[in-house]
Each structure stands twice: as structure tokens, then as C-alpha cells.
Specification:
By secondary structure, the chain is an all-alpha fold. The protein is built from 18 helices and no strands. The longest helix has 29 residues.
Length: about 425
């Protein structure tokens, strides 16, 4: 009976996928219906992964980002600060429908490929002792990176710093289970970098080390219901501070902003995240530009990203697609991961990246006590960087993972070759 029910779910999802691809091919869209389907499929996935708190957390983030787009731009009160920017593409433009369809196709493929969900397992390890030199080395590197970010920010690209720093935080928190001193220092560095980033307006980026610590040491100790309540509380808190900054900027003074103003505006916006709305707009500009460029040129850019840029970084002289779209539209960088892959390979690219994310979902779902340490650290990294790779740049899931792999095996395989890695 259960297998039959699952089969019916998959059949319905497959039929929905084929139907969406068909209407996309003939260019017929209904934005309202697409929005409803996005939320329906995501709630279905959320229900399916509820027993695995790691995947539950992952999908709570994704749902909130997509919810912010849907209710912040399509079904709810538009965010006024971005209204003028959005007017560069007419409301009835097919570009907006394609942007929504990319979100829907991505979610349908994820739902179709969901494995049988297992209960989550703790991600801590016993790989190193409290006196192990590797813990001190990783902690020292984190210290150098944080200090470099604080005092050399004008010289070194902050984006590059955090691309490397989050790797060291993930490894550091993972291996310092028995080293209270190193773990305490890492927490201090995390708090310092978080405060600096939040002061500079980087709310999303500042969350990554905190998420890494959360999924390693806390998430397996709480119930799913507690996780849900905590997530909602954090959303309200971050929405509050983000909105407070927006209102101060609009009124040019903090004295003219009252609690009533904040409460009313938060309710009007339905607690949406303006960062997600801004990133969605960047994706729309990429889609708009893609429609006017040759397929071969766009595909070459995608292949170069997946090969040359992943291996060489900035030395590859790769042209980022948000820089390409910036020549034609005003935007604030970033972009949903689906927008990047649509630019490169059309709807096929959206299906490709959905398959790629499904691989990580299966990996996280399959983690147990016998899993390799590398697999656990990779899971921590993917979870900690969700805001980054879903809303900003897919670099995290390609070049970032390559760097993580190199760093991990440099420390663990070379310094502790007798351990199961």
C-alpha cells in the first residue's frame, strides 16, 4: 500500500514535469499557477524530509528563499526598494515566466529523485585527539583568515576570503570535538566575522560559519518541531534587522523609525527576504540577455565555468554572467542557481543542476556512523553554504568543493594517513 502511494506520487510528479516542459516549449505560461505549484511541490518535499533534520533544515532555507520571491514580487506586496529596478523588464514579459518556471522545474526534479528518507545522524567525529596538532593548525589558519578579512579588506577581495574561510570553519568545527581550546577560539572567530559582516550588510554570508557549527553540534540534539520554531524565529530576527536598515536608509535617520513602522512593514512584506528578491531579479536579467545571445556562446561560457574557472579561479580570465547582464540592466549581483544554468544550457541546464543537487541530498540522507569523514565534512559544507550557492554564486558547489577536497586531504590524508578518511 505504501509503495503504491509512493508510486502515485512519482507518477503525478513525472506528469507535472512533462506538462511543464511542454508548455515551456510552446511558450505558454501562467505565473499565478506556477507560483502555487512551486509552493505545493516544496511543501511536499518538506513533508517527505521531515524525519531527517539536516535535509529539513536545507529545505526550510530553500522554501524561504523561494517564498520571498513569490510573495515579495508576484503574489504579495512588492518590495518598494526594488520596484524601480524590476521595471526594466515589463510585468507581462515572458522572461519573468521563464524565471518562475526554472524554479518549478528544479523543485519537481528534486521531488522526483527523493530517496527513502532516513533519520539524521550526528556529524561530529573522533578523528583527532585534544592534543592533535592538526586542530591547532586549522585554528591558526582560521585566525589568519579572519584577521586578514578585518585588516586587509581593502586589499584582499572579501568574497575570496570567505570562499576559503568557510572551508576551514567546516573542517575546524568538525575535528575539534575533543579540543575545547581550539573550538572556543573558532567560535570567537566566528562571532567576530559574523558581527563585522552584519555591520557591513552581509547578513547571508555571515550565517555560513554559524550554520556549520549548528549542523555539527546542535541540530541532532533538538526535535524537528524545535528546529522549525527556531528557524522561524531567526527569519523574523533577520527580517527585522534588514528592514530596520532599509527604513533608516529611506528616512536618513534612525530616530524617525518606530517599532510600529517596522511591524507594519514586516506584515505588509509577509516576512520576505529582500536579498532573495534582489537575487531573483539578477537571474531575470541573465535570462533576458540569454535570449539575445547565440546558444554556442552561452554554452561555451558554461563549459568554461565548469572547467577553467573551477580549476584556475580568477587566473582563468573567466567572464561572469552577472557582469555580462550588468551591461544591459541595473542589478545588485548574485542570482539564483537556476538562472545561471538556464543562461548556459536553457531548461536542460536547470534539469542538470537539479540532478546535481539531488546527488547531495542523497549523500546527506545516507550519512551514518560508518560514513567517511570526507563525506560528512562535504555535507557540512553544502549545508553551511546553502544561502551562498542558492542565492548568489554556484561557484561554491564546484570550485569550492574542489578546494575543500584539496585542503581536507592535505590535512587528514598526509598528516593522519592511518585514519579512515
Amino acid at each position: 500500500m505504501i509503495s503504491r502511494k509512493v508510486s502515485i506520487d512519482k507518477i503525478v510528479l513525472f506528469f507535472l514535469l512533462v506538462t511543464c516542459l511542454f508548455f515551456s516549449f510552446i511558450g505558454r505560461y501562467n505565473n499565478f499557477l506556477i507560483c502555487l505549484l512551486i509552493m505545493a511541490v516544496e511543501l511536499y518535499v518538506l513533508f517527505k524530509v521531515r524525519k531527517n533534520k539536516l535535509l529539513l533544515f536545507m529545505y526550510l532555507c530553500i522554501i524561504y528563499f523561494d517564498y520571498s520571491v513569490i510573495f515579495g514580487k508576484y503574489l504579495g506586496q512588492p518590495i518598494q526598494r526594488l520596484s524601480l529596478v524590476y521595471q526594466q523588464i515589463p510585468p507581462d514579459s515572458e522572461v519573468r515566466s521563464i524565471g518562475l518556471m526554472c524554479l518549478l522545474l528544479f523543485q519537481i526534479v528534486i521531488a522526483l529523485l527523493l530517496p527513502k528518507i532516513k533519520k539524521d545522524q550526528p556529524l561530529t567525529c573522533d578523528l583527532f585527539s585534544s592534543s592533535d596538532s592538526v586542530s591547532y593548525i586549522v585554528t591558526a589558519i582560521c585566525a589568519v583568515m579572519v584577521l586578514g578579512y578585518l585588516f586587509l579588506n581593502s586589499i584582499i577581495d572579501a568574497r575570496t576570503i570567505y570562499e576559503y574561510a568557510i572551508i576551514m570553519f567546516c573542517i575546524g568545527f568538525y575535528i575539534t570535538k575533543h579540543n575545547i581550546l581550539c573550538r572556543s577560539l573558532l567560535i570567537s572567530f566566528m562571532v567576530i566575522s559574523t558581527l563585522v559582516n552584519m555591520y557591513q550588510g552581509g547578513r547571508i554570508i555571515s550565517l555560513m560559519p554559524m550554520i556549520a557549527y549548528f549542523v555539527i553540534y546542535i541540530i541532532h540534539k533538538i526535535k524537528s518541531r524545535t528546529l522549525l520554531v527556531s528557524f522561524i524565529s531567526v527569519v523574523v530576527l533577520f527580517t527585522f534587522f534588514g528592514l530596520y536598515g532599509d527604513l533608516i536608509e529611506a528616512n536618513s535617520s534612525s530616530h524617525s523609525v518606530t517599532i510600529t513602522d517596522l511591524k507594519n512593514t514586516m506584515v505588509e512584506r509577509k516576512f520576505t527576504l529582500d536579498t532573495a528578491v534582489s537575487s531573483h531579479w539578477t537571474s531575470l536579467t541573465e535570462i533576458a540577455v540569454a535570449r539575445d545571445l547565440p546558444v554556442r556562446e552561452r554554452a561555451k561560457n558554461g563549459v568554461d565555468f565548469l572547467t577553467k574557472y573551477t580549476l584556475l579561479g580568477k587566473k582563468a580570465n573567466y567572464t561572469q554572467i552577472y557582469d555580462i547582464s550588468l551591461k544591459y540592466f541595473t542589478h545588485y549581483y548574485g542570482g539564483f542557481i537556476q538562472g545561471y544554468f538556464y543562461y548556459w544550457f536553457g531548461y536542460l541546464g536547470v534539469l542538470m543542476v537539479a540532478l546535481y543537487i539531488s546527488f547531495f541530498i542523497r549523500m546527506i540522507n545516507g550519512i551514518n556512523k560508518k560514513s567517511y569523514h570526507y563525506t560528512k565534512i562535504l555535507a557540512i559544507y553544502v549545508l553551511a553554504t546553502i544561502p551562498r550557492w542558492y542565492l548568489y554564486y554556484p561557484t561554491i558547489l564546484f570550485r569550492g568543493i574542489l578546494l575543500l577536497t584539496i585542503v581536507y586531504f592535505a590535512f587528514v590524508k598526509l598528516l593522519k594517513p592511518q585514519n579512515k578518511v
